[in-house]
Amino acid sequence: MAVPVYEAKADLFRTLGHPVRVRVLELLCEKPMPVRDLLAEISVESSNLSQQLAVLRRSGLVTSTRHGTTVEYAVASPGIAALLAAGREILASVWSDAEDRLHELRETS
Questions:
Q1: 3-state class (DSSP) for residue 29
Q2: Residue 77 pLDDT exceeds 80
Q3: What domain range includes position 66?
Q4: Residue 106 above 90 pLDDT?
Q5: Residue 101 or 43, more confident
Q6: How many domains does the chain divide into?
């Protein structure tokens, strides 16, 4: 039996529920990168990065290609960049509204 779309979406958002995974995707949206470059950009242990890359690979969000001894990762779909951009827009809107409310509260005190 096929998984309902809403369950698949929930799985996608659960996968995105880790800050290291989100940061990896942000970096890979800029360009494909080998693990050593990802490690240089993200302050985590190599074992942690490896675990997070495995989760992203299993979920189909990233692909990996071996070039000799180097493994390079890339986003699997351009839609990932759009999703991350939408998240940024939503946060900017929510935070802007919170800022406006805080300003309003300070003025009425």
A1: helix
A2: yes
A3: 5-77
A4: no
A5: 43
A6: 1
Any alpha helices (H) in the chain, and if so which ranges?
5-15, 19-30, 35-41, 46-58, 79-108
Distances (CA, A) of 39 to 14, 24, 47, 94: 23, 10, 10, 31
- Return the closest-CA partner of residue 25 out of 88, 104, 70: 88
Instruction: Please report the pLDDT score of residue 86 as a whole number.
Output: 95
Q: What is the CATH number of the domain that holds 19?
A: 1.10.10.10
Contacts of 74 (CB under 8 A, 6+ apart): 28, 32, 62, 63, 64, 65
pLDDT at position 1 is 79
What is the rounded distance in angstroms from the CA atom of residue 36 to the CA atom of residue 57? Answer: 17
For 3, phi then psi, to 5°, come to -75, 130
